[in-house]
């Protein structure tokens, strides 16, 4: 079923054309990626779809009654006071109704039989509305989404909204959007404030949702796991592709090759025609030459695929010297900020030529570690230093290395005072700043533009050690691919903090994993670490299922103790009680073994050696076996308990 039809849509702002001739259809349940360079019109297209902006030309047709949810960049949570209320979003009315029902119930309990028909009728009416509008189901949904996006759902019910950081407000805005009753979700860079764990949760959520999803994202691994259609904005238009992200990459390459061949063929034909016209325009064949010139002038010119590619970053990272073998050394390092310990007792050495991926939850201390390694702060205890003959370059996540009070020309000229003007402008042009754009002040730039300036500055350092803190955050997909290619060719050493799994998987030879103040040094690639992580995730899911089973057991124990008291003289009841007790002992023993195996599998150190990996595989198999035995034991216990309850009732 078609939900939105975009037909020949175009948008102009004054003399500036954003895009034109965009046509595609959004069907129910589709998952679209909207890709393109920064400034190509992706966010504008979202506004057209929601109706908050009208196209200059063309038309947008929506299914009647269609509900759409767009995550705005500026988070507005209305009158919400707590994190939970803000996450509940459009269910605020139900929250108010729930509180009203509680107050009405208290009043009815106080007045008892003196309750008036009006009070009773209002309570019945509100209760019926509460149930009809999902009052008994929305709270668990809000809890699940908040928990999945890294919030404590219980704490969120009382936590003031004003306590949240900018990144937390971003995640809360996403939660609010996901729990909404919208038919179509328009997600603009939803992974920007997510770490690896919450990004994986969001992937699974979107894979399983029945809603239609449109994504603007530069996270290639995320796109590859979620989308089944791609709309690529380029050259002032757009091309729709059917299939996932990998299929899009292949189809785009084929299309560009075909386009390039057609362009070259037409260029040769035009050159031949122009040569004929030039030779014959004043001669015997003047009439034919003039006719050919008229036809040639009317011929639509094809554009080569390199027209847009030419504005991609010309990024090449060279080193000025080889540097020492020991690039960075940490000895028993502890880092604390405002009394909170982030990293405790960490020791490691980065060798020349290594690419170390540094991952962990947001706020765990990765950026603080990089700042300390770059010399911007001292470790609380221990030694943290850069080796001899090592020349570092630090790409900060906040891009504070870009002076905002100067023009782009001045920024580069200060780094290369010996360069002529054309050299400075040529360098800026390789990063997408040509002509008059070189005179723009850095404080007028968007996030993506500042990121490109930061990379232009980093190239000039010719450093042999790169400290990169989330370098892909503000870049579009094409720029990320250019950066990844440059890093693959780079001959120096890299310490990379990133949540871009595609880049981590392509580059890393070693992984540091920061969790609960401890850094696990994994001697393998990020792809290998993810493979090992699946065992830990499996252990966690089994533990969660075991906790749920344990909760049911405890509830039934309470019920049994309440209902089977008395009549101990009955032989059958005594026998059933013995079976119940035996089953309880078996359940307890199996729970204990599951706890041991789960603790073992959740220990990151287990996966740093070949022997540990083999042990984890055996433990994972045993965990499955014990879990099945626990299910059987709980079934036996439940059957015995129910039979005992029946006998005690007779």
Structure characterization notes:
There is one protein chain. The radius of gyration is 32 Å and the shape is globular. 33% of the residues are buried. Helix 20 runs antiparallel to helix 21 (610-649). It is built from 21 helices and 18 strands. The chain has helices at residues 42-50, 83-88, 92-111, 117-132, 138-148, 153-156, 166-178, 196-208, 220-226, 245-280, 286-298, 306-309, 366-373, 408-415, 421-429, 447-461, 477-489, 501-507, 526-563, 571-601, 610-649; strands spanning 2-13, 16-27, 31-36, 57-62, 68-70, 184-188, 212-216, 229-234, 237-242, 326-337, 340-351, 355-359, 381-386, 392-395, 465-469, 493-497, 510-515, 518-522. The strands form four sheets. It has a six-stranded mixed sheet, with helices on both faces. It is α/β, with parallel strands linked by helices and 650 residues long.
Name the descriptors.
6-stranded mixed sheet, globular, 650 residues, 19% strand, alpha/beta
* Contiguous uncertain segments of 5+ residues: 306-311, 558-569
From the helix content, strand content and strand pairing, which structural class follows? alpha/beta
Summarize the biggest pleated sheet.
6 strands, mixed
Mean pLDDT: 84
- Name the helicity range: 40-55%
Radius of gyration: 32 Å
Percent of residues in beta strands:
15-25%
Number of helices: 21
Give the tally of β-strands.
18
First-to-last CA distance: 58 Å
**Gross geometry:** globular
Strand order, sheet with most strands: 5-6-7-3-8-9
